[in-house]
Amino acid sequence: MLKRKIYGIGMLISKLLDMNKLRLFVMAFSLFGLFSCGATVNKLDVKSFASAVEDFPSVRLIDVRTAEEYSQGHLVGAVNCDWYDSTFVEKVSAAYDKSAPLYVYCRSGKRASEAAAALEKVGYEVNNLEGGYLAWTDAGMPVTKYEVERFRTASGAPVDIVLVKHGSLAICYDGLTIQIDPVSGLGKLTDYSKEFPKADVILVTHEHGDHLEDATISTLTGENTVLILNQTSRDKIGRGEVIRNGESMDLCSGKIHLEAVPAYNTTPGREMFHPKGNGNGYVLTIDGLVIYVAGDTEDIPEMADLKNIDVAFLPVNQPYTMTVDQCVSAAKAFSPKVLIPYHFSQTDITSIPGRLPGIDVRLRDMR
User: Fold this and answer.
1) Residue 91 in this model has a pLDDT that exceeds 60
2) Are 296 and 279 in contact (CB under 8 A)?
3) Catalytic residue (one of 37, 81, 106, 252)
4) Is 106 considered catalytic here?
5) CB-based contacts of 182: which residues, under 8 Å, 6+ apart?
6) Torsion of Cα atoms, 182 then 187 then 192 then 196, to 10°
7) What was the pLDDT predicted at 25?
8) If DSSP codes are grouped into helix, strand and coil, which group holds residue 151?
């Protein structure tokens, strides 16, 4: 009888121990689930990553390599933010809200994994390119040395805006290329003969040397290229079709609607830089997507007449164009969905995003 009681007590203790082990296991599993369920870092192979970048026209793609690595080639649309910068998380947080995922990559995957983990901790959903830039290029995927912003038209067609430098832009849509103020020099040399096809349209805002370069226009001019410029630029190079403030026209068989708008200085003592009535800003409408390229101007009253601007390029190069305060004032006047400051030379533009809540301000290297 005693043996049976001892045996029974032993079995009970054994069961209790097993139950405690089970409870500990359940608790451990629950804690693991608690901590792991918040993880939002996803590794994507090249094919999946490429599909995701293509599917999200406003994808937030970050190259976390150094600026030197980035300049040698990067994914189309990628913004550079160096993981080794001690303010990396702060810079990303200032540029992107947490409403949509981020896509990150580095050379081989290690830095991007670290960066993704840091961003996840502050609340971002992050997708990491497995194998990094090396895997991407090994797969023969496209890269570029220029920053490119991709937008979508009303029907979903892609429009790529190549941020060449300073005031020079290229817009690519439906097999067409529109060059705006193409200039080869200005520090960052651009070989338009090798890096771009012949243009369908060339737009020149005004006659200053950092916007009008006859040799580059000749390089980009093909048999059917249309050159459109202000009167003073036409007088200077002796060719092209003149458009004046307030005039408009359809281009490329009606695929693009162009309107010339005023661009001038207003601050006393600066009027001679860009006199009223001389230079143009341009508003391009491409299948419902409206792009405003301001040219050289200050925050003039006419900007309040701009409507439904999807993407705006505003110059911030005091004293010749806008101060930072004027850029903020101009953006508030017509509230573009996306603002990309350009033509800023050495002006510090880092405060602009924080001063324009509700506007997607994208700081890009246009120097």
Assistant:
1) yes
2) yes
3) 106
4) yes
5) 164, 168, 170, 190, 192, 199, 202, 213, 216, 217, 220
6) -80
7) 41
8) strand
